[in-house]
Amino acid sequence: MSLSIIYSRASSGITAPLVTVETHLSFGMNAFLIVGLPEAAVKESRDRVRSALINTQFEFPDRRITINLAPADLPKEGSRFDLPIALGILAASGQIPAEILTDYEFTGELALSGELRPVRGVLPVVLSSWQSGRKLIVPYQNAEEAALVQPAKVLSAKHLLEVCAHLRGEQSLSYCLKRGSETLSINHQQPDLADVRGQTQAKRALEVSAAGQHSLLFVGQPGTGKTMLASRLPGILPDISEEQSLEVASIASVSSQGFHPDNWKQIPFRAPHHTSSSAALVGGGRPPRPGEISLAHHGVLFLDELPEFHRHALECLREPLESGMITISRAAIQTQFPAKFQLIATMNPCPCGYAGSKAQFCQCTSEQIQRYRGKISGPLLDRIDMNVEVTRLPPEFLLDENIDQETSAMVRDRVMQSRELQMQRQGKLNVALTVPDMDEHARLQADAKSLLIQVTNKFNLSARACHRIVKVSRTIADLQGSRDIVAEHLAEALNYRCLDKTRMVR
Fold first, then answer.
1. DSSP 3-state of 343
2. Which of 152, 178, 204 is the last residue of a domain?
3. Which of 88, 122, 474, 487 has the greatest number of CB atoms lying within 10 Å of its CB?
4. pTM (two decimals)
């Protein structure tokens, strides 16, 4: 038979669409053609496949070879099609049985010696092949990553000869098995909140932020502990589920850095430098790759020194903060990546950092301060649920070893109880409440409603800001086990809006 069909998978965002590798051997001038919108790395597979087949003592057909990667309008990139192309040639030339190939999918890069090399984005391929009901053969170095999808039937091989021997029935490849250590959560290995002395209000704000998954901005002078507090957030968050872990791992798998199995079930904590471009934050490139906001999916995105980021990069965060999704459009392709992250950021009160300090003189003019704070636009600031001032503490307080400090484990227990209450009541966390949800689950008592009206009129708050204040109030009430939102809860939520008051003072 001069025609064979092999199944493989392409990469499109965090999905892996099916690609049918059709191989036809015909008479005519000797040639090796690959059609179906292949990019440069795919076209180069001709030379890798030819050398691999010759060096493994297979016969390379002395005929016209046509490889069609269908569907033809789907861009194909990377070296993942080396193995299926090689097997397609062997099947079409009768060197391996073609009938059994319909039960399998293949992905992998070939070395010139016939060894299999790992490819990027294996997890989406495993998930898609499992849903199709076919077995998958991957390079041995991708086995650990592929084994994370437990129900899937994934086999691994080190060499092309091993794959061919398995298809002939001469020997069997081993299934990819998941290591036992991956099931353990490493949340408890995070830096402990007890390391932070004092800062009661900031710690309380961090707890409220974790309980409702609210975004949080710390404002304070240099050295007050803003970064130290922010780095403790993952340690008070509940474990992510198996399904969420697969989403996180799939995004990392298709990124430029790849996914390491040791990071399984670890809450993402991304802290990009303030020189990062908008493409680095939201994703980009050709083909599009996920950015920091997608790599922080189901985790935390920490932006230290927020006003130092490029204005355009910060403005790109506005839509993902609302929708939890980012769409990257290029001339020939449009890709979506999930981006449900919790934003936590820090900033100084002015360029020199000492505005409002009694201990150190601020050298900034009012124009410089306004220009510095103006780097964070009103629409972006409106999307940050809480902004809290972190004050400087006296040295004798910092050096007092007798002060009792709550550990991350203690705070984490309260956060988990609050989240369980939210899921039982509304099936989602408070940060995701819509307006109809708020009418049903976050009604304000008369005294709280009156207080919110007064504050809204006084500080000229937007409708979005009011909704976010109500959501934070709902979380505070949940932490206290209260069904109703009273003025006390709303007053605490209003206390976490220090920049609204600052804007009015100016």
1. strand
2. 178
3. 122
4. 0.90
pLDDT value for 359: 76
Amino acid at 400: D
Is residue 417 in a domain?
no
> Residue 50 and residue 46: Cα distance in Å, rounded?
6
Residue 428 lies in a domain: no
Give the domain extent around 446: 433-506
- Using the CB atoms, write b or e for 293-324: b if 16+ within 10 Å: bbbbbbbbbbbbebbebeeebbebbeebbeee
**Residue found by looking up tokens 């780095």 in the block:** 231
- Tell the burial category of 425 from Cβ atoms under 10 Å away from its Cβ (0-12, 13-18, 19+): middle
Same domain, 174 and 218: no
For 253-268, what is the mean pLDDT?
A: 90
Q: Do residues 267 and 141 both lie within one domain?
A: no
116 and 192 housed in the same domain: no
Neighbours of 437 (CB within 10 A): 17
Would strands 64-70 and 109-110 be described as parallel, antiparallel, or unpaired?
unpaired
- Roughly what angle, to the nearest 10 degrees, separates helices 408-426 and 463-479? 110
For residues 102 and 232, membership in a common domain is answered with: no
Residue range 179-230, pLDDT digits in tens? 654 444 444 578 899 888 888 899 999 999 999 999 999 999 998 899 999 9
Residues 6+ apart with CB under 8 A from 184: 265
Q: Which distant-in-sequence residues (6+ apart) come within 8 Å of 498 by Cβ?
A: 219, 387, 388, 389
Grouping H, G, I as helix, E, B as strand and the rest as coil, residue 105 is strand
Angle, vertex CA 483, rays to CA 424 and CA 340, nearest 5: 45
Residues 158 and 201 in one domain: no
Residue 415 falls within a domain, yes or no? no
Distance separating the N- and C-terminal Cα atoms of the chain = 81
Domains in the chain, number: 3
Q: Are residues 368 and 387 in the same domain?
A: yes
SS3 track for 141-193:
HHHHHHCCCCCCCEEEECEHHHHHHHHHCCCCCEECCCCHHHHCCCHHHCCCH
At 113, list the tokens: 């010696």
What is the DSSP secondary-structure string of 226-282? HHHHHTTTGGGSPPPPHHHHHHHHHHHHHSSS---GGGTTPPPEE---TT--HHHHH
- CATH code for position 499: 1.10.8
Kind plus residue range of the DSSP H or E element containing 33: strand 31-35
Residue 412: inside a domain: no
Q: Which of 178, 213, 229 is the last residue of a domain?
A: 178
